Amino acid sequence: MSGSVRRTTVCIAGGGPAGLMLGLLLARSGIEVTVLEKHEDFFRDFRGDTVHPSTLNLIDALGLRARFEAIDHVPLQRLDVVVNGIRIHAIDFSTLPAPNRLVTLMPQWDLLELLAAEASTLPAFRLEMGAEVADVVRRDGRVTGVRLTDGAVVEADLVVACDGRASTVREAAGLVPRARGVPTDVAWFRMPRPAAPMPDTLGWIGAEGLVVTIPRPGYLQCGLLIPKGSFDAVRAGGIEAFRQRIARAVPRCADVVGDIASLDDVKLLSVQIDRLPRWWTPGLLCIGDAAHAMSPVFGVGINYAVQDAVAAARLLAPALRRTEPGPVGAGVVDAGAVDVACAAVQRRRDRPTGAMQAVQRAVHARIASGALSDLIANPPTRRQRLFLRAVLPRVKPLVARLVGYGFRPERLDP
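Above: the chain sequence. Below: its structure as tokens.
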């Protein structure tokens, strides 16, 4: 397609949760949309797994629940953490409204395949894999499309950047996110499940720091939180020191740490939190990670991206249907109305995103200070026992609501 020019109403750069959900919803409204995904498939090991109740409600509303349930996944109604050897039932989603009183751990590529398959049944939807955006196209100061690395141009009435925290489209448009400092990174690796049955546990907190053990089908996807910039020091310590550190942090997995073959199997996941001061410019809107990078804390990245997409579809669809006379009499999309809708998307989603990022930064600050390991002693002090018996049960429903739905969850239009 080198040098070719094709046209669509909405061009979405990036086939992640935000891009595919937005494409699906706009196509359901009869709006022509093209999603450009630079990779040939959806398989990325660093992508989030956690599908929260807010997103499960949307899956239900889209009529996709039966197909969702047919995909291998791990449902969790309760999220446990172990602090200094003391197991705490920290979050219990059974207090949320029916029917979705749980989170589901599903590899993100499976969720993306589901959304892409459903969207592809709609005549207004087009997905192009292996289509990498290199730049935006402008006319009279307005973004009017994108140019691909092969030279092809996709013209559109609106371009939506959904191409992640290192967004090419965002950079090409001159939009610069404001970074919020995060003092931690993650050493990312996987282990087999131990031979002895182990309760699903998302966090192990102790003298070795914080280790997350995400139960994926057949194995544990794990992360060791480390001070930012210290990954080279971790590698310099060697594989055996790393294995022993994980064994001390997660004693239930001591018999499987040997399966971490080498430090080549341990990858750096650089944690960042940032947000655009302005999510749009004429002809272009950023949502999901392109607008705001989220920390892995609470695993809300997928869900905030999806919430952005739902809000954007609801606000953009009426504007994209509005037309004004074109140069040859045919109706064209009212560009002014589209820009007003883009601004409305930011007004709708900026504050709830900022609120969750503030919570995430507070958690990272406690991790960096080492204060998390001081939460519960072993054995617990009298004051800590009182907290576990009297305070935690009252707090858990609020935490479940915050984690499960976030701030300002979105719903599909009836």
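The longest strand covers residues 5-13.
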